[in-house]
Every structure is written in C-alpha cells, then in structure tokens.
Amino acid sequence: MNLALVAAAAAGVQVGAATVASRFALDEVAPLTLAMLRYGIGALCLLPFALAQWQRQRAHRRYPTPGPLAWRDWLAMGLLGIGQFGLLIAALNFGLMHIDAARAALIFSLFPLMTLSLSAAMGRESIHPRLLAGVLVAIAGVALALAPKLLSGRDGHWIGELAVLTSAGIGAVCSVLYRPYLQRYPVLLVSTFAMFCSVVFLTLAALTEAWPSHLAAISPQTWMVVAFIGLSSAAGYWWWLYALRHESATRVTVFLALNPLTAALLGRVLLGERLDAWIAGAIALIATGLWLATRRPTLPVT
C-alpha cells in the first residue's frame, strides 16, 4: 500500500468537507477571520507534537548546520505557509461567499493542471501521456460544471470563480516549492511552523474585518463548525505535506479530485445545495481523470 497516496486521498476528502463547512460558517464569520481561526486552531493542535519532534531532532543534530542557509530555509517556509495557509484559504473563502460549495470545489480541482504545468516548467516533473490525459479530463469536468452559466446568455459576475481559481494557483505554486524543504526537515515541524506564520499574517489582515469585536457574536453552532474546520485542517495538511514529501507534487495534487465529490455530496445533504446533471457529469469526469492520472506508466516490453 502506498501510504503517501492514501494520505493524499484523505487530504482530498478533508478539503471537500472543510469547503462545505466553510460555506456554512461564512454566514456569520468574515473570510479572513475564518481563515485565521481555522489555522489558529490547527496550529495549536499540532504544536505539542511539533515541539516534541523538534527536541528529538535537535538532540540527534539532524537539521542543516545553523547559518545563513538554514535561516533562508525557515524564511522561505514561512512565506510558503502564508501563501498555502493564508492567502489560499482567504481567496477560497471569499469565493465561497459567491458560489456554491460544489462548483467551488470543482474549480479548485484545476490545482493539478497548474501544478503539472509549473512542475514541468521547472524540470521537476516528467510528463507521461496517462498523467496528462487524466489532468485534461479533470479540467473538462470543471468546464462542464461551469457550462450552465456560460450557456445561460445572461451577463453575470465571475468574481467567485476567479477567487477560487486564484486560490488554486497559489496552492500549485506552494506545492511545487515546498518539496525541497520537506526533504530536509520533518513534515510535522514544517506544517506547524507554516501554519503559525500564516496565523500571524491573518491576524493582522483580519483587523480590516474588525475580528476582535465580532467573535462574541458567533453562535455556538457556528463555533462547533469552526472547530471542526480547524481540527480537520490540522490533520489534513499534515497528510498533505507527508504525501508531498514521498510522492511527486502532481501525483499528490491530483487527489484533490476527491474534493468536489465530497463537497457535492455533503453540500446536498447538509446545505440543501442542488446536485444537477451538470455537476454529476463533472464529478464523473474528474473521477475518471483521477484514475488516469494516478496510474503509473507501463514500461515497454523489451
């Protein structure tokens, strides 16, 4: 069993569930504030385990020699954390204020194609036909999900779709750039440090939403949903970084195809969102793309 791909699949399901939960919470919590709470809770959950690992690693001198290189590593990981856990989720939350969870999750599934393109451009990824075909089929699924709006003939704003697309782009960049640091440092330590950096950034950014005065107005039910988002994110992003450490960025990110399936089903059951034929067809295409993209190329018979 490939544990890295199992972790990637679990992270894909977690993203879909958190998307639906965020859609619910955004009725009471502003997008930057929700992102701050999400990763504040997540970072606090991971902190005790990260500190214990830090002590063990220091005792065995397993880190790169202290100096300018190590400090540059930590600075880079902090900036990637702000992107991966701060800007990405803030943009996704903003998009969820304008479109339903299922379509947002489907657009977010463009993540693998963006990752593939960037990774190939940087020479870090070899592209085989099945992988490329799988990603393109997944993109066709996203296009199918947007077809009703494109064919309606009515002028409408696309700010929600653009925000989610921007979120996917940020995630692709961070996924490719994370891997060298994940190979030098423990996954748990990197994820916790990155989350804390994003929380510092989001705490300041969310002041524009006057978050200190709004927390008391959040209902107990919404606090429970926020707690779920934070706790699941702590686990989900540890799985995500573990997968990135042991597998290529493209093979890992393609498991985000499980995100729209999860979001569509939970959105229908919990939020009463409509699951029409367009969405069902899009999910089928994305599932097919997942199957194609994660199959290893067969070696030629000699």
Descriptive tags:
302 residues; single chain; 13 helices
Provide a descriptive summary of the structure in words:
- With 302 residues, the protein is mainly alpha-helical.
- 78% of the residues lie in helices and 0% in strands.
- It is built from 13 helices and no strands.
- It has helices spanning 3-25, 31-59, 68-96, 101-108, 111-121, 129-151, 159-184, 187-205, 211-214, 220-246, 249-253, 258-271, 277-293.
- Helix 2 (31-59) runs antiparallel to helix 8 and helix 5 (111-121) packs across helix 7 (159-184).
- The longest helix has 29 residues, at 31-59.
- The radius of gyration is 19 Å and the shape is globular.
- The mean pLDDT is 82.
**Low-pLDDT residue spans:** none
Structural class: mainly alpha
Q: What is the strand tally? A: 0
Give, in order, the helices and strands: HHHHHHHHHHHHH
Work out the strand percent. under 5%
State mean pLDDT (0 to 100 scale).
82
- Biggest sheet architecture: none
Please compute the radius of gyration using only Cα atoms. 19 Å
Q: What is the overall silhouette?
A: globular
Tally of alpha and pi helices: 13
Q: Percent helix among the residues?
A: over 70%
N-to-C CA distance: 28 Å
